[in-house]
Write a structure and sequence with these properties.
The structure is a homodimer. Chain A is of the alpha+beta class. Chain A has one domain: Roll (Thiol Ester Dehydrase, Chain A). The first copy, chain A, contains four helices and five strands; from the N terminus they run E-H-H-H-H-E-E-E-E. A five-stranded antiparallel sheet of chain A has the order 1-3-4-5-2, covered by helices on one side. The two termini of chain A are 15 Å apart. Chains A and B meet through helix 1, helix 4 and strand 2 of A and helix 1, helix 4 and strand 2 of B.
């Protein structure tokens, strides 16, 4: 189990890769973002995107899934109060393979709840052409190791 | 169809309501955020949250769905470059009924692409006790009306 103390500013952790399928793009968007360029391949072709693209919220969910699988499952994570600077730079399309990375920007003990620490991180997703498609700055709470 | 010109700074639009079920919380989280307090009711009870809570990304997706259903379906929306200040204030739990609102903070024509305008908006979700559970600041692109 990893605790707050096991992370340092500057740490950069690879989050593996994730293949994005057309069916997952459409399924996510039907539930949470049913705009034509996310759910209808034909209408998407005549949109400014020239074809079906993933909802930005789906792409954020994919980042979260990679983060949980690689890191949070074995970390004393206590959730997050929020995200800053969530940016979608390029469309994510069916068949894309995304690669993730998280970098620790700041680490400090909570003043109000000294049993936990706070990490500010930068998350990034790249596609198979090494283009940055999404980034965000997140805050996460983690338990401190009992001493 | 609504275009960029149909929005003004200060406009505030109600986005209706959305009931959050336990099954939707677990289903979303199994796919995109499988932390114990989102997917396992028993483990969630002994967590700091005292019970199952929705992934913050799920809550953001619910906001997006309400926005699409109420507004974007009949608006010449061209997507979004990003989000700032996404904040989760309080847990969202099974059975909660969320109410949404969007307020226009800024409206300007794109300098690089004068066929479209840019709206900066504040989105908010409240629960059935009128508590603010989530807010965000978003930028969205919209087509300008052809004159």
């Amino acid at each position: 189990m990893r605790f707050f103390e096991d992370f340092s500013v500057g740490d950069s952790i690879e989050l593996g890769s994730y293949q994005v399928t057309q069916s997952s793009i459409v399924e996510f968007a039907r539930a949470y973002d049913p705009q034509p360029f996310h759910v209808d391949a034909e209408q998407a072709r005549s949109s400014i995107y020239g074809g079906l693209i993933a909802s930005g919220w789906h792409t954020a969910g994919i980042y979260m899934r990679m983060l949980v699988d690689t890191l949070l499952r074995e970390t004393a994570s206590l959730g997050s109060p929020g995200i800053d600077e969530l940016r979608w730079y390029l469309p994510v399309r069916p068949g894309d393979t995304l690669r993730g990375r998280i970098t620790v920007l700041e680490a400090r003990v909570s003043q109000s709840k000294p049993d936990r620490g706070l990490l500010r991180t930068r998350g990034e997703l790249f596609n198979q052409d090494e283009q940055l498609v999404m980034s965000l700055v997140a805050v996460n709470f983690f338990s401190r190791r009992r001493t």
